[in-house]
Automatic annotation (TrEMBL):
Gene3D superfamilies on file: Glutaredoxin
Signal peptide boundaries: 1-21
InterPro entries in alphabetical order: Redoxin, Thioredoxin-like_sf, Thioredoxin_CS, Thioredoxin_domain, Thioredoxin_ResA/DsbE_sf
PANTHER family: PROTEIN DIPZ, THIOL:DISULFIDE INTERCHANGE PROTEIN DSBE
Sequence segments annotated as region (Disordered): 25-46
Protein name as catalogued: TlpA family protein disulfide reductase
Domain Thioredoxin: 44-183
Organism: Sphingomonas glaciei
Length: 183
């Protein structure tokens, strides 16, 4: 019962965080450093190890961030189908994932729906990213993420480089500048 209450409370917090978004981060606005937990660029967690927890891949099989990364830089995006800024930025993450020379892009749904619903949602939006899912919202909790979308860049060593809270055009100049920090 307590776990159900905590999951509901976290979902409410994430929903309100998504709704608090004043709109997308402009390229200029993206340059402003965020206060920890607020929208924008946040480097306060740099050096923190990638959380070890179980996620579901697009086939509903168990996996983890470290298994996905396999020693390479990883761009992890937390999103949900009910979060308008998340849905708005998904196509730019998809386009980024198609480029060469960028970190692997992993979009992880925080929805509690069945995995086939997440796959169908992405297909309906014409987004080719794999339908990773964290229906227990363990990753949001481990990262202390209260606003969706939240995107975290991990280096090949599994350590956080930065996180960006709020939506961003991941094909834009500011994103390209940030992604050059991947190592």
């Amino acid at each position: 019962m307590r776990a159900l209450f905590l999951a509901a409370a976290l979902a409410a917090l994430l929903t309100s965080g998504c709704d608090r978004q004043a709109g997308s981060q402009s390229e200029a606005g993206a340059e402003v450093a965020a206060q920890p937990g607020g929208p924008g660029l946040d480097r306060s967690q740099a050096g923190k190890a990638m959380p070890e927890l179980t996620l579901k891949d697009g086939d509903g099989e168990d996996t983890s961030l470290s298994a996905i990364a396999a020693g390479k830089p990883l761009l992890v995006n937390l999103w949900a189908t009910w979060c308008a800024p998340c849905v708005k930025e998904l196509p730019t993450l998809d386009a980024l994932a198609e480029r060469g020379g960028v970190p692997q892009v992993v979009a992880i749904s925080q929805d509690t729906a069945a995995p086939d619903k997440i796959r169908a949602f992405l297909t309906g939006k014409q987004v080719g990213l794999e339908a990773y899912q964290d229906s227990k919202m363990g990753l949001s909790s481990a990262l202390g993420s209260q606003i969706l979308p939240t995107t975290v860049l991990y280096g090949s060593d599994g350590k956080e480089i930065w996180r960006f809270t709020g939506d961003l055009d991941w094909t834009g100049a500011k994103a390209a500048e940030l992604l050059r920090e991947a190592r």
